[in-house]
């Protein structure tokens, strides 16, 4: 049996838990099926993928991921004021996640932050922007990725 390690060209199966600074669980595979991805395929942000390099099957690690290596810093320019009439038939509510189209027509989620008369403040930052995260992983399997 070959003892593979996490690296380019490998398919990795793992369990993970993603936590906020205060220990709140954001996402986890522990109670469900493990995640499988090919190292370097872009499914994991580099800040999450790079610390895994060199780990072996059966190993568990816990990494602290700074905002700039996770979902970026919170950017005030990503908070936009829109007119209530821009929402058409939809009625925005504070805390609601809504889907908007960007200039290229791609879907862009935004969180309604406040409503003041006819003005609606929408935050287009990733909900985890500006957060330092803890990435707790357990490597279940490592196999050479099948190339097509």
Question: Can you offer a commentary on this structure?
Answer:
This protein is mainly beta and 148 residues long. It has one helix at residues 46-49; strands at 10-19, 25-28, 35-38, 60-65, 79-83, 97-101, 107-116, 119-123, 133-144. It is built from one helix and nine strands. Strand 7 and strand 8 form a beta hairpin. The longest helix is centred in the N-terminal third of the chain and has 4 residues, at 46-49. The mean pLDDT is 92.
Q: Whole-Å distance between the termini?
A: 24 Å
Basic shape = elongated
Number of domains: 2
CATH architecture of the largest domain: Roll
Approximately how much helix is present in the residues?
A: under 10%
Mean pLDDT: 92
What's this entry about, in short?
By secondary structure, the chain is an all-beta fold.
State the main characteristics:
148 residues, mainly beta, Chitinase A, domain 3, Thrombin, subunit H, 2 domains, five-stranded antiparallel beta sheet, four-stranded antiparallel beta sheet, 1 helix, 3% helix, elongated
